[in-house]
Every structure is written in structure tokens, then in C-alpha cells.
Amino acid sequence: MLTLPLARPPWPYIGKKLESCVRKAIHEFELVEGVDKMAVALSGGKDSLSLLFLLNAIRGRGVRPFELVAVNVSGEFTCGAGVGGGLLKSVCEALEIPLIVKESNKTLEELECYSCSRERRSLLFAAAKEAGCQAIAFGHHQDDSAQTLMMNLLHKGEFAGMLPKLHMHDYGITIIRPLILAEEAQIIAFAKHFGFARITCKCPVGQTSVRKKTEGLIQELEAIFPHARSNLAQAALNYGSKKAAEVPQKKRK
């Protein structure tokens, strides 16, 4: 019989480290300021499940109390973990967190990272807004931030990483990233301890995506510069993040 993968305090050492990262991000970037109800983008992978467990554990404990709602985008080919809806429903029921499921109708012929990401986000934002949430939390971590900085720099010539907090004016909702200071290795260790690290991405396109190739490039850089990954992520926070929030300006000739 499959054991339901639930993570609750008291935490092991790695759980305490992750909780510390989340608390630091919440306070440093004021992620829950003005938030009474928050949605979590729940793919069912290690990142989003870890985020759900951690936010549920700390809300109201040294952190502003807020309601939680989980939003999942389902479909035959969705970016994220190949998790049955029944498992996510059971997890959310055990945590007493409402689960909203939206359907993507993408076919194999239509799969492409950029368009899929836009469709998925539109579904997530709309569901969060309809549920009365002021913010939606994504499970992006430090490694994602480093990869995004590299992709923006090399593909678009822009030094721009992921913002810990970004208000989406067109949707009337704010994106927050409470795991932005956490390393992926920490999340993997946390997920292994509680039994949900086995869940992996099921998208056939995602395995050969630009992000995957960028991760390979960062690994090559780490062979020369051991702190390349963390330095890229820190540089994104220090110098590159505000690019996404600025009003677009005309390019120099």
C-alpha cells in the first residue's frame, strides 16, 4: 500500500534548514505583506510539494497568518510531475487545504516550453484570482534563479533573474517565490526524507529544453568556478532582478 507523502514538523535537520530559508525570504522580501489568502502552484513535484508543506507549517507561527489554496494544472502533457490527481487530492485533504484543478488540453504536437508556460500561468493566475487570493507562490529555488539569469543573459542580452516578489498588473495578483534562497539539493534531501522525491517531470519536451541545457552549462562552469551557481543566483538578486519590474524602455540604437 502506498504511503501518503506528508511532511510535518518536527523537522529533521534539512527541514529546519529549508524552513529557515523560507522564513528569511518571507521577511527579507516582505512576501506575505498584505496577503490574507495565498495560492500555491502545485504540480506535485518535489519543489511545489515542499513549498506547500513548509508554508502550511509556518503560517501563523512567526509569520503573518494566511489561508492556503492549492492550484494544479492537469492534462496529458503538463510541465511538472506525473502525479495522479487522487494523490494530490489526498495530500491536500490531509492538510485541510482546498485543491483547485484546471485542465490543459495541449497535445504532443503542440508541446513547446514558452507557449505551455504562458497557458499554465494564465490558468494558475485565473484560478488564484477567482479563489480570492492576493498572491500565488511558486516553487522556484536558487538553482532556477541561476539558470534563468544565464538564459536571459545569453539569449536576450539582459541581466535579469527571477524576482522573489512580482506584482502581475494584468492579472491583479502577485507572484512570490518563498524558496528563492534554497538550494535544489536541499529540497531533494527534504523530499527523499519524506518519500516524495521519486516524483519526476513527465513532459517529453522538458527533458531537452533550453533550461536543461543551461543546467549542463552551469555544471561545466562549476568545474572551474566551484561557487558559480550560488554566485549567479546572488548576482540575480543583487543586480538583475529589478529588470522584470521596470517599465519597458526603448532599446539603444
Structural commentary:
The protein is 44% helix and 11% strand. The chain has one domain: Rossmann fold (3-Layer(aba) Sandwich), CATH 3.40.50.620. Strand 2, helix 3 and strand 3 form a beta-alpha-beta unit. The C terminus is likely disordered. With 253 residues, it is an alpha/beta fold.
Briefly say what this structure is:
With about 250 residues, the chain is α/β, with parallel strands linked by helices. It is built from 8 helices and 6 strands; from the N terminus they run αβαβαβαβαββααα.
Structural class: alpha/beta
Strand order across the biggest sheet? 3-2-1-4-6-5
How far apart, in Å, are the first and last alpha carbons?
64 Å
Q: What is the number of beta strands?
A: 6
- Report the average pLDDT across residues: 86
Largest sheet: 6 strands, mixed
Just give the CATH class: Alpha Beta
Rg for CA atoms: 18 Å
Count of DSSP H/I helices: 8
Q: What is the architecture at the second tier of CATH?
A: 3-Layer(aba) Sandwich
Outline? globular
Domain unit count: 1
Helix fraction bin: 40-55%
- In N-to-C order, the SSE pattern is HEHEHEHEHEEHHH
CATH homologous superfamily identity:
HUPs
Topology-level CATH name: Rossmann fold
